[in-house]
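REQUEST FORM: STRUCTURE PREDICTION
Request ID: SP-0412
Submitted by: Lab K.M.
Chain count: 1
Length (residues): 83
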Amino acid sequence: MREKAVALKYDATQNAAPKVTAKGEGFSAKNIIKIAKEHNVPIQKDEDLVEMLSQLELDREVPPEMYQAIAEVFSFIYKATKK
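STATUS: Completed
RESULT:
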């Protein structure tokens, strides 16, 4: 199975929900992860969530039916960064 990655961005002042800002597999996934690490962005490994998010179009908000899963990601980020 090839490595996959999805990047999310959330700006509460501009969007109602997080957006998919990057996605890819193989080399692209490795590059997304590398850039995240370079910028100290927390990384959560969840193959099922990545699979679901990779089906979304770039620059689209996450649909409401995925809010619970995304809330878990943001909880992880909060705990990892205390921000």
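NOTES: Strands lie at 4-9, 19-25.
Reviewed by: T.R.
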